[in-house]
Amino acid sequence: MKRLLVVLLLTGAAFNGMAKPTDPAITFYKTPLVCNAAPTIGCGSRAKPVLLAMEKSPAIKEAWLNRAGTMVAVVWKDKPETLAVAKPIFQENSVSFTALNEADAAPYRKTFRKAGLWYHSAEVDMLSREEATTIANSAVKFALENKLITQDEAAKIKTDAQAYFNKELVKIRTNQQLNEDSQTKFKAAMYSIAEKYIGKARAQKAMLLYQQNCEKECKKTEDCCHKEKTI
Question: What CATH number does residue 80 fall under?
């Protein structure tokens, strides 16, 4: 009896946090949903409308994003329907994709559904909140390094910036809306927050420092000043 219990427990553990034997079919799609402002995680703002749209489809049971933002996993209710179902949703949201074959999908299948490695549908809001923290830190980093602001001023700006982006980044936007807001609305909000605590002149200098350092990073990564980068 004890031996049987051990076998059952081990069997259950083997399927915990990975593809289940009852899943009819899972397709893993390579996607460019990495967060520009926080390149070690996926972009919740970009992924959320994709995943929600997929889960509205009668053909799809679940839709997930991996933490890195490089993979979307679709659990189908029956057979895979990439061309008829997944492709139109990806295209509507301006997301390029490549369906992996079984061999390439194998490593992702092993970790699929593991907490902290995969995010189901609206759970990607957790990634957006991580991004909000990164943006808030970046907003004051260069001004602090150049002694343009004090630690106390930086703390106040960071608190307000994080609160702002915690709300904004979980909103559902199209790719175009997100790009436009990144270049206008978000920058204006950051300037307004900075101006509240350090005045117009220093706020302008702080934004200039950020942009200058961004351009330096561009030369290294060719990504920092990409038009889709937030603030």
Answer: 3.30.70.100
Same-domain status, 44 and 115: yes
For the chain, the distance separating the N- and C-terminal CA atoms, rounded to the nearest angstrom, is 61
Q: Which residues contact 67 (CB under 8 A, 6 or more apart)?
A: 41, 42, 116, 117, 118, 119, 127
pLDDT band at 37; cut points 50, 70, 90: confident
147-196 tens-digit pLDDT: 999 999 999 999 999 999 999 999 999 999 999 998 899 999 999 999 99
Number of folded domains that form the chain: 2
Tokens describing residue 174? 């199209």
Q: Alpha-carbon dihedral of residues 8, 13, 14, 19, nearest 10 degrees?
A: 120
According to DSSP, the residues that pair with 31 across neighbouring strands are none
Please give the residue range of the domain that contains residue 77.
22-124
Same domain, 140 and 50: no
- Domain finish residue from 124, 145, 174: 124
- Quick one: tokens of 64? 């997930």
Position 130, amino acid: E
